User: Fold this.
Amino acid sequence: MKNKNVGYLIVGISVIIGVIISIFNNALKKIVSTSCTHGPICPMWGTITTQSWISLSLAGLVLVIGLFFIFTKESEKVIIKKINMPAKKDTTTSLVPKKINEEELKLLDKDEKEIIELILKENGSMFQSDIVDKTGMHKVKITRILDNLEGRGLIERKRRGMSNIIILNRTN
Assistant:
């Protein structure tokens, strides 16, 4: 059942409890007025007032809980799917890109080389979030490095939902 529906159910129950309390208090007042001969100074009148406030407070608490359920946002489920891309055995249509030549490797700094080697180990493509996890670098730093590599034409970023897939260019 959704939170909102539960909230409406609880509010309905609290209204019913309030009506029952009201009917009970009216009946109790009639009984006390006919049976008590002391008038308004009778201790039963004080007991009725105390019982009324306690019961109405409990009904009010149930009402507040119902309103809380009605107006709170429902929690969202996060589903994470991992994409496994099997490597093909045919070398002409392989997903593994060609090796980057030595001249291009010399132009890369240490962090850029680490990221390129990591992508190569993962058959030429991987999620940007996985790069952050496996390198231990901050995601802002990874983004800047990937911007630089993409500007040089070494990688390509493709948006997949809330994440990016990083792919080594096959023209290298």
